[in-house]
Amino acid sequence: MIDGMTSPTRTSNTPMPSDAGDRRQVRPAAEGWEQQRTPEGRPLLQFASPRVKQPPQHLADLTLAERQAKLKELGLPAFRAKQLSTHYFQHWTTDPERMSDLPKAGREELVEAMFPPLLTEVRRLRTDDGNTIKFLWRLFDGALVESVLMRYPGRITLCVSSQAGCGMNCPFCATGQAGLTRNMSTAEIVDQVVAANRVIAAGELGVTEHPDERVTNIVFMGMGEPLANYKRVMAAVHRFVDPAPEGLGMSARNITVSTVGLVPAIRKLADEELPVTFALSLHAPDDELRDELIPVNNRWKVDEAIDAAYDYFRKTGRRVSIEYALIKDMNDHAWRAALLAKKLNQRGRGWVHVNPIPLNPTPGSIWTSSEPEVQDEFVETLRAAGIPTTLRDTRGKEIDGACGQLAAAE
Ligand code: SF4
């Protein structure tokens, strides 16, 4: 449904837009599917995961102390926990043949108990230059999730999924269409990174820069709302940053946790003392549009989300990112850039960075990319107001850029 090519709308406290007269306003709407709604007609939000079985426990679900306790239960010495952890987190292997430091007798059974297979590769798509690989994984219960591996000069980023499906019901998103299937386990999240490291080590991601390459940056921007799966996502972050062999030994600042604005969870995250990078997917500075674009805005409004993001900065000292997908005639008006800048500057200076992200061009859809000159005006308006702003590129256009498209097609 493409409805409402109506005149610009604004809330009573938003400034009179200077481009209100000559820019149209496209309203968000699901295209080709119907958003699930509550009896009151609001888009349905699912915060709790359906009570379905979780995958078998894996070494990466456990802290080092828990691994040692489990091995004791199995009648084995605790030091085996470090050996197994080294194989998984440093050599990225679960192959008993390669674990020659473990006694041959009982080795296979031990590996079976500690490393049940979690991700089965269903499809792999690669861009022509080989610098971007998108994976589609099947989980133990048949649920499908994706991750995307991207090589940039000097860094390698993996975009990971945190839930099978998603309960946030955003009208533009393929992942949200079927609702939330279940939360992913900690080890299912971690295993995406270990699998990616294997692929990099095999020389399969573009042109190798040096022999010890591995994933350097992780962004929680795949399928799911990470903060709706808070406990497991936090445990996964610990596995990423814990020093080897307990974890992958990555830098917390290279891990980006993003959210569409679950305010209480943002506040909890600020108290974790884990200096991860925090990103708020805002996409609109006015409640009138954001209520439709990001349904969770009906629960926590724009100002509450920005307040929580600002408090994250104050508590952690880490500069916050605001993600803003630029959608033609929907949220790309210069007056919205000015309103966003005003709301950010009201809280303070130097605490935030805005990343406008042009959507992929989709002819005939209301979800399509802004005109280049409109993008430039949006960026310039923010910069002129003193907000550091970087127009992002969208990787993987050739291979179905948006999250959830592969799984939806499957
Ligand atoms: S955009 Fe993100 S939060 Fe919204 S439905 Fe999709 S995966 Fe969930």
UniProtKB/TrEMBL annotation:
Membrane among keywords: no
Cofactors demanded by this protein: [4Fe-4S] cluster
CDD domains, per the entry: Radical_SAM (cd01335)
EC number(s) reported in the record: 2.1.1.192
Pfam families: Radical_SAM
Region (Disordered): 1-41
GO molecular function terms listed in the Swiss-Prot or TrEMBL record: 4 iron, 4 sulfur cluster binding; metal ion binding; rRNA (adenine(2503)-C2-)-methyltransferase activity; rRNA binding; tRNA (adenine(37)-C2)-methyltransferase activity; tRNA binding
Alphabetized PANTHER family for the sequence: 23S RRNA METHYLTRANSFERASE, RADICAL SAM CORE DOMAIN-CONTAINING PROTEIN
Function: Specifically methylates position 2 of adenine 2503 in 23S rRNA and position 2 of adenine 37 in tRNAs.
Miscellaneous field: Reaction proceeds by a ping-pong mechanism involving intermediate methylation of a conserved cysteine residue.
Protein name: Probable dual-specificity RNA methyltransferase RlmN
Organism: Sinomonas humi
Gene (UniProt): rlmN
